[in-house]
Amino acid sequence: MLKFLALRAVRYAVMTFAVTSLAYLMAVSFFNPEAQLADIMGGGVDPEVSRANVQDSLRRLDLDPDQNALQRYWVWLTGILTQWDWGRTPNGGYVNDEFAIRVWISTQLTLVATVMTMVIGILLGVYAAARQYRFGDRASTWYSYFTMIVPVPVAYLLVQRGAIWVNEAAGQQIFYVTGFRSIGVEGTWNQFVDMAAHYTVPTVAMTLFGWASMQISQRQYLLDFVNADFVRTARATGLTRSQAIRKHALRVSFVPTAQSIAFTIPALFTGTVMAEMVFNWDGLGSWGLRALHAHDVNASVAIVFYGCIIFAIGAMLADFFTSLVDPRVRL
Amino acid sequence: MSITPISAVENSRAAADELPEQPVEFKPMGKKRLIARRFVRNRLALVGVALLALLGAFALFGHLLTPWHYTEQDFLNLGTGPSAEHWLGTNSAGIDMVALLAQGTRTSLMIGLVVGILTPLMSLLAGCAMAYFGKWVDRTLMWFIEALIMFPQIILIGIIMTGRDGGPVTLAFIMVFFGWMASARLIRGMSLSFVDREFVKAARFMGVHPLRIVWRHLTPNLASLAIINATTSIWGAILAEISLSFLGIGVSVPETSLGLLIYQARSYVFGQQPWMFWAPVIAFGLIVVALMLINDGLRDALDPESRAGGRARV
C-alpha cells in the first residue's frame, strides 16, 4: 500500500516537474511583459528612455528581458529549489505572498458550494435511479442535462440578476452580488451577517448549476447495479426492493463516486475561475487570469505547478479511497 | 454495435412470416444505407438537421442581411435600438448587431466543427494505436495523456492565446489538442477486445501494414462511438469557447464569437438592451437543440437494438 502510493508519488513528481518546466519555457518564449508594462507605466516623452526604464525595472525583479529562455529558467529553478522563491510579478509583488492570500479566498468561496453540490448530487442521483423513468427521475435528470448545456457565465449572470431583483423588490441591500466583504464592518455578529450576504449568491449559483454531473453519474452507477444478479439474489432471499438496493447495490455504486469525491477535495483549493470573475472575488482564478493578461510568467507558472500538485493529490486520494471502498482492490 | 446486412434480412424474414402470402424479395442493404434509412425515418432528427442547416446558412450568408460589415462602425447610431437600418440595433461602438451575430455564429460553428470532427478522429486513432501496438507505444502515449490531463488547461490555453494573440482558428486547434485524451483512454479499453480477434490476426499474418490494420479493421468497429462523440464534442467546444471568451482568453476583439458577444453584453441581461445579450444566447441554444436532436437520431440509427427508429417496411 505505502509502496504503491510512494511509487505513484514519484511518478507524479516527475510529471509535475516536466509539465511545470514546459509551462515556464512556453510562457517565457510567448509572453512579452515589456510591452504590457510599458502600457501601464505610460509612454513618457522619449520612447527610448521609457523603454530603458521598463527594462531596468524588469531586471531588478529578476525578469531580465535580455536573457534567453534557458538562462532565465535556470535562475528561476535555482530560486525555487534553494529558497522556495517563486519569483516576482512584473509590478513588483512577491508570488509567494500573493498566492497564499488568494488560495484562502478561493477556498472560502468554493467550500460550501462544493459540499452542497456533492451531497445534493449524490442524493438526487440515488433517488432518480431508484425511481427510474418515473416523474422524479425524469424531472431531476432533465434539470441536470439542462444545467449542463447552459453556458456557465450565462447561468451565473442570471442568478446574479435574480439577486439584484430581490434586492430591488425588498428595497434594501439583502444580498451583495460582487466582492467578498464590505469595508469597515465591526463586531463579530455584523461581520458574520456581512459575510453571509456576500456568500449566499455565488454559493447558490454554483450549487444550482453544479450538481448536474454528480447526479447523472451517480444515477448511472446505481442503475448499473440495480438490475444486477446479486441484487436479484438478495431480493429472492426476501428483502424488499428498497432494502436490496440500500444494502447491496448502493454500496457498490459508491466505488466510482468515491473517486470523483477524491478529485473534488483538493480542487476546493483551486476555486473556480468563472465564479470569481462574475462575482468579482479576488481569488486564485481571477488572479491567474490577470497574470495571464499582464504576461506575468512567474505567477502563471506558479498556478500551473499548483494545479499539477492538486491533481496529483486528487489522483492518489482516489486510489486510496478505492482501496478503502472496494474489497476487490488491494494495493 | 455493428449492424450487419444479415440483421436487415432477418427483420424482413420475420415480417414475411407474419404475412406468408406475399412473396418477399431480399434486397441486401449496405451498412451505411441502412443507418441512413434509420436516421431519415426519425422525424425529430430531421428537424435537427434542418435547424442546423438553417443556422449554417445564417452563419454563411447572414452578412447579406445587412449592408454593414462586422468591423464597420456607424458613428451616427451608437448603441441604438432596433431600427429599419439596424434590425437588432448597434452596440456601443456602433457596430451592427446582425452582422456581429452572423459572424459570431460563423466563428462558433467553425470552432465546433473543427473540434467536433478532429477530436473524435484523434482519440479514435490514438486509442486504437495504443491497443494494437501495446508495449512502448502504449506506455509512452499513456504518460503523454496523463501529463496532458495534469496540465491546468485554462492557464495553458491562456499562455498560448494571450502570448500569441491567437485567433479563432488557433483556439480551435488548441482545443483539439487538449480534448482528445479522455475518450482515447475509453477507446483503448474498448478496442483491446478487438486486437486478438481472428480478422485482425489474419490481416497481420497477410502482411498488412500495421497502420492500415488500425485504420481498416479497428477504427470501423468503434466508429459508431466516435460519431456519437462527435456531436457531443461539437457543443462541448462551443460551450468551452463561450467560457474562454468570457474570461478574455478566447476569441478577442477584432474577431467575434457568440462567447465574446455574451461577454460584451453581460450588463444588459434585463437592462436597457436585452436583445444584445439574449440574441447570442438564443443562437447558442438553437445550435445545442439541433445537435441534441441529431445526436439522439444518430444514437438510435447506430444502435442495432434500438426500436426507436421504427421498423423497416417490406
UniProtKB/TrEMBL annotation, chain B:
Membrane topology: Multi-pass membrane protein
Superkingdom assignment: Bacteria
Alphabetized InterPro entries for the sequence: BP-dependent_transpt_permease, MetI-like, MetI-like_sf, OppC_N
Main localization (coarse): membrane
Keywords: Cell inner membrane, Cell membrane, Membrane, Peptide transport, Protein transport, Transmembrane, Transmembrane helix, Transport
Domain ABC transmembrane type-1 as annotated: residue spans: 105-299
Transmembrane regions: 44-65, 109-133, 140-161, 167-187, 218-238, 275-294
UniProt subcellular location: Cell inner membrane; Cell membrane
Family label: Belongs to the binding-protein-dependent transport system permease family. OppBC subfamily.
Protein name (Swiss-Prot/TrEMBL): Oligopeptide transport system permease protein OppC
Source species of the chain: Nesterenkonia aethiopica
